[in-house]
Amino acid sequence: MYPCEAENKKLLNRINRISGQVNGLKKRFEEEIAHAASGEVPYHSDPYEIIRQMTAIRGALNGMIHSYVEHYAKGHLVSQIREAPDESSAMAQMDALLEVMKSFGK
Q: Rounded to two decimals, what is the model's pTM?
């Protein structure tokens, strides 16, 4: 079986980094709301920086998905296909992965 513990640790670290990025973005919007509510001079974050942050979050999440799929395919899927009682069961496993990958690409 493919070693899961090390991969899961990497994925958890990635989740924590992504969470930090999302929380930073959330804080920026909360600060803008607070400024608006206080009646102070309007404060607006740099829209290009906001877009860069959102793009970085999306990139990090996409990278995490790719990493997880690779881990699953190399380890678990290979084992499931090898242990399948017949070819149609093995193909069903592969089809399930391909269906998920199609939805990811949308």
A: 0.76
When divided into structural domains, the chain yields a total of 1
Short-list 58, 64, 65, CA closest to 22: 58
Query: How far are the Cα atoms of 44, 46, 47, 56, 103 from residue 51, in angstroms, in the given order?
Result: 13, 9, 6, 9, 24
The CATH number for 75's domain is 1.20.58.1000
Q: What is the mean pLDDT of each run of 10 residues along the chain (106 residues)?
A: 76 95 93 81 79 95 89 84 88 88 77
DSSP assignments along 45-94, one per residue: --HHHHHHHHHHHHHHHHHHHHHHHHHIIIIIIHHHHHT-SSHHHHHHHH
